[in-house]
Amino acid sequence: MATIENVSGTAFVVAEFRAEENTEPDLLYTDPIVGLFLNDDSKRTAGRVAASFPSSDLVRIRTKYLDDMAELYRK
Fold it and tell me: Does any domain span residue 2?
């Protein structure tokens, strides 16, 4: 796999939060692609961010909202 370069660490933290939803019992959405970009480093970093600021729920709720809005406009 190619090395990912010049991407903000924030993008990987958000991707980790998005990926967490894939393991929830009552899914808000599924994101089958996001896991391809993650590794142990991104998981540790996201864990540190989540411990200092409970933002993972905000990311997941925002993702659900944006997905729902995009679906409305596709119809």
Answer: no
Nearest-angstrom CA–CA distance, 15 and 60: 10
Residue 37 falls within a domain, yes or no? yes
What's the pLDDT score for residue 68?
92
* Helix residue spans in 1-75 (DSSP H): 9-21, 40-52, 56-74
Question: Which residues does the chain have with pLDDT short of 50?
Answer: none
Structural domain contains residue 4: no
pLDDT the model gives residue 69: 94
CB 50, CB 56: distance < 8 Å: yes
